[in-house]
């Protein structure tokens, strides 16, 4: 009887290990999540500003990017380059939420390039 119980537990543990092996993300996926790659886009300032309003960035950063709940973004380009801004917007940072599920990578890249020009 005890052998049957031990065999059953062993089988269940093996099945669980196989399931985890196929469902857990690989090293490449984890690396991509930690450091999203910024796609190459042509800067379109009007579209970036419209996307920022659509994503409601002005709720926290103000209608003139002067700050409020979130920090001022009027001179963000002197602190961060476009890739750093892309990473912050995509992943989120501190109280800022991630926008990778709300905006396309190209939209985030356009906003990042637009903000990096603000010096």
From TrEMBL:
Family matches, as InterPro entries: Cyt_c-like_dom, Cyt_c-like_dom_sf, Cyt_c_BACSU-c550-type, Cytochrome_c550/c551-like
Gene Ontology annotations for the cellular component aspect, listed alphabetically: membrane
PTM comment: Binds 1 heme c group covalently per subunit.
Keyword match Metal-binding: yes
UniProt KW keywords: Electron transport, Heme, Iron, Metal-binding, Transport
TM segment ranges: none
Example GO molecular function: heme binding
Domain Cytochrome c: 43-119
Binding site for heme c: 57, 60-61, 96
Protein name, entry field: Cytochrome C
Source taxonomy: Bacteria, Bacillati, Bacillota, Bacilli, Bacillales
